[in-house]
Automatic annotation (TrEMBL):
<protein>
    <submittedName>
        <fullName>DegT/DnrJ/EryC1/StrS family aminotransferase</fullName>
    </submittedName>
</protein>
<keyword id="KW-0032">Aminotransferase</keyword>
<dbReference type="InterPro" id="IPR015424">
    <property type="entry name" value="PyrdxlP-dep_Trfase"/>
</dbReference>
<comment type="similarity">
    <text>Belongs to the DegT/DnrJ/EryC1 family.</text>
</comment>
<keyword id="KW-0663">Pyridoxal phosphate</keyword>
<dbReference type="GO" id="GO:0008483">
    <property type="term" value="F:transaminase activity"/>
</dbReference>
<dbReference type="Pfam" id="PF01041">
    <property type="entry name" value="DegT_DnrJ_EryC1"/>
</dbReference>
<dbReference type="InterPro" id="IPR015422">
    <property type="entry name" value="PyrdxlP-dep_Trfase_small"/>
</dbReference>
<keyword id="KW-0808">Transferase</keyword>
<dbReference type="InterPro" id="IPR015421">
    <property type="entry name" value="PyrdxlP-dep_Trfase_major"/>
</dbReference>
<dbReference type="InterPro" id="IPR000653">
    <property type="entry name" value="DegT/StrS_aminotransferase"/>
</dbReference>
Amino acid sequence: MDVPFLNARDINARYADELKAAAARVIDSGWYVLGQEVAAFEREFAAYCGVRHAVGVGNGLDALALILRGYKELGALSEGDEIIVPGNTFIATFLAITENRMVPVPVEPDPTSFNLDPGCVEAAIGPRTRAIMVVHLYGQLANMPALLALARRYNLLLIEDAAQAHGAISNGCRAGAFGDAAAFSFFPAKNLGALGDGGAVVTNDTVLASRVAALRNYGSEVKYWHLFQGVNSRLDEMQAAMLRVKLKYLDDDIARRRHVSQRYRQGIRHPDIRLPAVTSEEQHAWHLFVVRCAHRDALQQQLQRLGIQSQVHYPVPPHRQSAYASLRDVRLPLTEQLHDEVLSLPMGPTLREDEVGRVIAACQAFECPP
Ligand SMILES: *Cc1c(COP(=O)(O)O)cnc(C)c1O
């Protein structure tokens, strides 16, 4: 039997009875879009993150895009504005910006954490810069004190792409509560995953929250009266009901992920496999456990031969994608090197102890090609 990279069925099987009861509650209610389940989940998720508002939307990309749309409607952002982003991120971070006709300015990461490097961010700030979009990559909080100080000094919005970092915490402040607004994804493979697509915008800004709430629903606050040219991107009642069940177990799941990461970090001692750098235990929610190896493809093949699934997050950076020919001239050597060297090992709350042991043994047995 293969060691799975992530097994969504096992993850949800643990709460099958509760999930089925919640699904039955929605079916029997006869109300499937923007009802009590979404309202309750929004309250519960806002409380979990420690912010005033959460607005359920269709997915994580829409959550990011609707934050920018909301700021446009408020006059805080306009088309053509530059937004600083990490070069090494999932493409959704870029898509949200270009969808709003703004300009992503990608910068190099910190070489040990792979998160935004505040020095590189400051160097990229220019007259058209209006915001920093920080990504808590792989589940680890970026250097928020430094980035918040920069945002304040240069009068920039600080927006968090927290799609990988549900539950990461620093000094009592959780991912999503640091910046002006944050986007979460509830894609099934995320730390808090629905049984389909879902997302949320969280913020302490009451006006932004009400703009996003209108924008996700055809730009309407009162049925058939449209204040904005909105979209249809709503978290549905069924997914909200699933998420309400799973939110109760999120911290237990993160503890389980942390345990797996501790075993990996103790057990994998190989001169050619670099372990992830950890700022502090609580600041990492271990969405992914990513090692670095100059012979990444050989390592992945070796794991494959031993029945261990692994993935690459991500093989090609956004500025090297066909979708972004406009960024062809951008040079980000460290970002590009990382994309050639990173490998994500199996990680999740249902990974068994013996499976963790197999992954460690397989890494230890890796023989670097000459
Ligand atoms: C998953 C992810 C998203 C997008 O979320 P979806 O729900 O899949 O649209 C955005 N940013 C990052 C960093 C992600 O990992």
